[in-house]
């Protein structure tokens, strides 16, 4: 089913064009060094758009990846400057989702775009991972909640 979704994403809806555009934009922003945190995030987002069904964008914080405090502070400052642009991109993506939901064939593509709205707003410190990793992280969170409930 994931393969069929990816084929529908790429063939009639030209998802590969979006993926290449986002990846190249990320690459250009990374080369500027000043916008490197946004560029790295957009490059990860581009990887997600190449194979959106079966992948997910997740925060590095949720994966317990240690980060340099200086890089984290710099990323936050750059993200504050990027936020108005991300808001515009997310707003345009909402219109795209609504337009795609009108046709039955467009629903899978609309789901991909709706799934990535948070990344449009904040691509900094995000990682493209397999959906199985996200499922495992959610299972572990649920297990912690159960363990805390049993201790009380």
Descriptive tags:
7% strand; 152 residues; mainly alpha
Fold topology:
Elements: H1 2-10, H2 15-31, H3 36-50, E1 55-59, H4 69-102, H5 107-115, H6 117-121, E2 126-130, H7 131-151
Antiparallel strand pairs: 1-2
Succession of helices and strands: HHHEHHHEH
Record field, number of beta strands:
2
Tell me roughly what share of residues is in helical segments: over 70%
Global shape: globular
Give the integer mean of the pLDDT values. Answer: 87
Measured by DSSP, the beta-strand proportion falls in 5-15%
Between the first and last Cα atoms, what is the distance in angstroms?
Answer: 42 Å
Structural description of this entry:
- There is one protein chain.
- The chain has 152 residues and is mainly α.
- It has one domain.
- It is 72% helix and 7% strand.
- It has 7 helices and 2 strands, in the order αααβαααβα.
- It has helices at 2-10, 15-31, 36-50, 69-102, 107-115, 117-121, 131-151, and strands at 55-59, 126-130.
- It has a two-stranded antiparallel sheet.
- The longest helix has 34 residues, at 69-102.
- It is globular and about 50 Å long.
- It starts with a helix and ends with a helix.
Summarize the structure.
It contains seven helices and two strands.
């Amino acid at each position: 089913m994931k393969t069929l979704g990816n084929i529908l994403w790429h063939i009639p809806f030209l998802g590969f064009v979006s993926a290449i555009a986002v990846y190249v934009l990320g690459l250009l922003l990374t080369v500027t060094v000043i916008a490197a945190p946004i560029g790295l995030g957009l490059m990860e987002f581009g990887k997600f758009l190449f194979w959106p069904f079966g992948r997910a964008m997740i925060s590095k914080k949720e994966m317990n990846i240690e980060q340099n405090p200086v890089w984290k502070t710099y990323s936050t400052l750059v993200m504050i400057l990027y936020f108005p642009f991300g808001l515009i991109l997310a707003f345009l993506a909402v219109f795209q989702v609504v337009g795609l939901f009108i046709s039955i064939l467009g629903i899978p593509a609309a789901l991909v775009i709706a799934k990535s709205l948070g990344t449009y707003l904040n691509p900094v410190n995000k990682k493209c991972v397999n959906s199985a990793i996200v499922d495992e992280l959610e299972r572990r969170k649920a297990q912690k909640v159960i363990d805390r409930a049993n201790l009380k």
